[in-house]
Description:
Blueprint: H1 10-15, H2 18-34, H3 39-43, H4 46-49, H5 51-67, H6 70-91, H7 97-118, H8 124-140, H9 150-163, H10 169-197, H11 200-206, H12 215-224, H13 228-235, H14 243-247
Helix pairs in contact: 2-7, 2-10, 5-6, 7-8, 7-9
Pfam families: MPAB_Lcp_cat
Protein name: DUF2236 domain-containing protein
Domain ER-bound oxygenase mpaB/mpaB'/Rubber oxygenase catalytic: 42-212
Amino acid sequence: xxxxxxxxxxxxxxxxxxxxxxxxxxxxxxxxxxxxxxxxxxxxxxxxxxxxxxxxxxxxxxxxxxxxxxxxxxxxxxxxxxxxxxxxxxxxxxxxxxxxxxxxxxxxxxxxxxxxxxxxxxxxxxxxxxxxxxxxxxxxxxxxxxxxxxxxxxxxxxxxxxxxxxxxxxxxxxxxxxxxxxxxxxxxxxxxxxxxxxxxxxxxxxxxxxxxxxxxxxxxxxxxxxxxxxxxxxxxxxxxxxxxxxxxxxxxxxxxxxxxxxxxxxxxxxxxxxxxxx
Length: 278
């Protein structure tokens, strides 16, 4: 069987562990809130209405790509492309190419950062593999200007961080929604994790701490993560309604039999959906 992501790829290890997936999306939640294209996330109203549900929806698509066979992964990518195309058609304008690249770049960045915070430093070949996998996703979606190496990605990522982030009323509202859905106890923990994984530019714009207070707890967790108490602590990070979904993030998922949703009025493409005129 041919896979989009090799069974022994570091990407499967990263995305097959609940701890790293939660840290990836803590960082992504921070950076999404600052992106100058964040208004696109508000256009349908689904993100502010249910940020945790949207997180798990995005995780589901990402894990389909990482763990499915090549055909299944490509169907997942094409379904994502169809959803974006439908939103663009409804709004009557195109999502900027740089905004698509921003999302890919932050997934690369937080896949690397989350694993290194929780596990160990990655090797150069592992970093190259992470970049290659996500850029293949971007190529399937028809996104132009993607890097071909880790070094190219680092340079492009630095430019994006410098040019595409700014606080806005959307930033304030998103964090209001994070607090409302997480509650007064879990919300400070989210901000602490974000401070630990985001780059300095994001940390400064959001007035986050460094997350240094979490390091002793993380060191303890790394030595006890197979014990019941640590499994309980991980599940406690999100409301009870999501605990089964958190546990399901550990290990490769069962084969996906159910069809992917295609938005009303959108045809799921068989290849890249981006218009060549963009």
